[in-house]
Each structure stands twice: as C-alpha cells, then as structure tokens.
Write a structure and sequence with these properties.
Distance between the termini: 16 Å
Structural class: alpha+beta
Number of strands: 11
Radius of gyration: 18 Å
Helix content: 10-25%
Strand content: 25-35%
Shape: globular
Number of helices: 4
Length: about 200
C-alpha cells in the first residue's frame, strides 16, 4: 500500500490521524510517517484495515441495541445509490443490521438515524467504488459541503454536494469523466431530497 492509498483509506474511514493510530495500535507520529512516505506501511497494518471493512459483523434483526457495549447496530437498506447513473428505488426496506465498532465514530451517533446503503457505479471513483457500502447520517442533510445520498428524478444518487450562498447546489462527481450539475430550486419543480451525509465507507 502506498502512502497515498493509506491516506485515502484513512479518509474514507472517517478517521483522524490520532484515531487511525489508536485503531492500529501505533503512535500518531508513525501515522504521519506512513503518510509522508518516511516509513513503509507494514502488511499487518494493511490487513487490519482491510479485514475490518471486508468482513463487517452481521447480527440478527431482533438484537437489543442496549446489549451492544462495543458497537452501534445500524440498519442496512435494500437501496443502491448510483455513483454514475441514478438507481431507481421504489420500495426502501431494511434487509439486515450491522454492528459498527464505536471507535469508528468521531462523535456519539443516533443509530436510528444512520443507514447503510450500497454504491453502484464509478462517478465517485477513487473515493468510492462500485460495491462499497456507505453509512449515511440522516440528521445531516444540508449546509455542509460533502458527500451525500440524495433522491432526484425518482433516482437515488451518491454525489458530492456544494451548497452555494444563492441557494443553488452543485452536484459533483469525484471522477473527472462526469460533468457537474447545478440544481436551482427556483428554476425547476423537480424536488431534490437529501437523504443524508456520508460518514463512513465500508469497502469490499
């Protein structure tokens, strides 16, 4: 793993350097050395990062949230968010629950407002890849630039949003092969519904 890949992994996990240091059991200085290329990244650290995201812990949908001392139980939806062309979703249902370690969250979340959805398409590459899962925070729906799941033209999308002072919203892709769209609520009757902001990525 290159230092650039390591930085991207950490950012996709939503970790600060200090949080990544705690997760890997190393010092913050070592994380900085990994990222500036001074120290090679050992295979054991690469495997620890990959193993957590590739194999999240599945539990029964009847589990009691109060009994989960080390993690948060989050609903996984049957939704695929289009990173490219939008994906049509007419019936949104909870199909599973996943326990995410509390250490992955910077602040204490409300698990009932967090949802896991799958990414489909390549418009958010390299930040997100098709088949990745993202955790969406339904309490964060506007005002802060970032990556969001949204519904537009009856399609579910995952895009980077930029909120402008004039009320318009730039809908952007991280893949430069895709064009930026500008949504102006004054010029259209098509509603834009922001489902929530991406807080974490679970990579396959």
């Amino acid at each position: 793993m290159s230092n650039e890949d390591f930085i991207l992994k950490r950012e996709n996990m939503g970790f600060t350097q200090e949080q990544m240091a705690d997760y890997l059991g190393v010092s913050k200085r070592q994380i900085a050395n990994f990222e500036n290329g001074k120290t090679p990244i050992k295979k054991i650290y690469v495997e620890k990062i990959s193993s957590y995201f590739i194999k999240p812990l599945h539990i029964s949908t009847t589990s009691n949230q109060k009994n989960l001392s080390s993690g948060y139980e989050i609903d996984m939806l049957n939704v695929k968010a289009g990173a490219g062309e939008g994906v049509y979703n007419y019936e949104i249902e909870v199909i599973d629950k996943i326990v995410m370690d509390k250490a992955f969250f910077k602040t204490v979340p409300d698990p009932s407002k967090m949802k896991i959805i799958e990414v489909a398409g390549d418009s958010m590459y390299p930040t997100l890849q098709s088949g990745d899962f993202v955790i969406i925070d339904e309490t964060k729906t506007n005002g802060i630039d970032g990556i969001y799941a949204l519904q537009l033209h009856n399609q579910i999308l995952i895009k980077r949003l930029q909120f402008n002072l004039n009320g318009t919203i730039e809908i952007k892709s991280d893949n430069q092969n895709y064009n930026t769209q500008t949504y102006n609520p004054k010029d259209t009757q098509v509603p834009l519904h922001i489902i929530g902001m991406k807080t974490l990525t679970i990579q396959r």
